[in-house]
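Q: Here's a chain of 105 amino acids. Please give me its 3D structure as tokens.
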Amino acid sequence: MKNKLSIVTFMMVAFIALSFTLQNTNQKTANVDQTQGVYCFINCQPVDEYETVFFLKIKTVWTNGQINTIDEIRDMLIKKANKKGIAYDALIYDGDVGATAVKFK
């Protein structure tokens, strides 16, 4: 009887430990590169807490009748953000609308 109780206790502890492990592996994270000292989040959101500093609108993703690459759009947004002269850590690209400049807490 004592042996069965210890096995059941062990299994309960193992089950609880496994459930905590599975919860932690469910998080989705990625490494984000910096461009010109700015973290650029494209089709994703930062995991770390942040505050919005300002929003940048882009009028078009077309130049001379050709669609710009994501690198060209990113560089345009960084240039436009730097012209504001307001400190920020990252840009979160919101699709064809623009980007949100943020500062991490």
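Q: Can you summarize the key feature?
A: The chain has a mean pLDDT of 80.
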